[in-house]
């Protein structure tokens, strides 16, 4: 015999399928049923060898202790060098500490109908450079608990998030360069306008203005960076390059390659800093910059989501930024 359905139990017990559902679900809604009817349903279920679906049973409860994780990359990273790996490791560690299970939504599509699947869980974490506005708006309107990992400004700032304080950390790097005597700086960043990119540039511009630095912001995907470009900047008096860190590391890789093509030494001929950390496996001196507290971001995001799923006595802060510790590195030279 195939899998026993509630319809089969209803037929044997001589009751409606709705009655079977009520009995097997524990009658949480308080429907009036005779004890004789309840026992008849249970006896029929036992006779047929009915085994309840554990997923359906959990979803029928008010809470199922499942937290979702939805990312818009094609697949979850398995390489510890991947930028998302420590975030997901932090998510897993905190979920385990809180006694929660995780359900992974692996589709890279941002279509609202796919995002609605996250409601299988009690709440969901979102991770990605850009927000799928329509899908997230639907979840917020329905009162479904969500937390984005990374600061978000979309939807009027209504998206709960845990992010990194890129503004302060980026400003500190520029201030460090100014104290080392640098006055002409090129800042290289990717073309798109994700909040993390905008925050870094805000910090760079504010600190450069405060220190009186000559700053030029170059938006590039890295394809136009080469040895002659670097040589031209140095001939123009530039003494430091600052590079944005992104998921792909495209601009850093292109800058590092261009420095090699130009035969330029770091920090002997030019200083170099990255707003974050360089891609894993970068050879040479330790690059100056700052740490993004990725594991801590994952853990803090889980705690915030859990507080939204099961509200306590106080109102949680829906927008939190974590400090990025500076990395002194070896690539900022002090000028005479």
Automatic annotation (TrEMBL):
<dbReference type="InterPro" id="IPR046335">
    <property type="entry name" value="LacI/GalR-like_sensor"/>
</dbReference>
<keyword id="KW-0238">DNA-binding</keyword>
<dbReference type="InterPro" id="IPR028082">
    <property type="entry name" value="Peripla_BP_I"/>
</dbReference>
<dbReference type="InterPro" id="IPR000843">
    <property type="entry name" value="HTH_LacI"/>
</dbReference>
<keyword id="KW-0805">Transcription regulation</keyword>
<keyword id="KW-0804">Transcription</keyword>
<feature type="domain" description="HTH lacI-type">
    <location>
        <begin position="4"/>
        <end position="61"/>
    </location>
</feature>
<dbReference type="GO" id="GO:0000976">
    <property type="term" value="F:transcription cis-regulatory region binding"/>
</dbReference>
<keyword id="KW-0678">Repressor</keyword>
<protein>
    <submittedName>
        <fullName>LacI family DNA-binding transcriptional regulator</fullName>
    </submittedName>
</protein>
<dbReference type="GO" id="GO:0003700">
    <property type="term" value="F:DNA-binding transcription factor activity"/>
</dbReference>
<dbReference type="Pfam" id="PF13377">
    <property type="entry name" value="Peripla_BP_3"/>
</dbReference>
<dbReference type="InterPro" id="IPR010982">
    <property type="entry name" value="Lambda_DNA-bd_dom_sf"/>
</dbReference>
<dbReference type="Pfam" id="PF00356">
    <property type="entry name" value="LacI"/>
</dbReference>
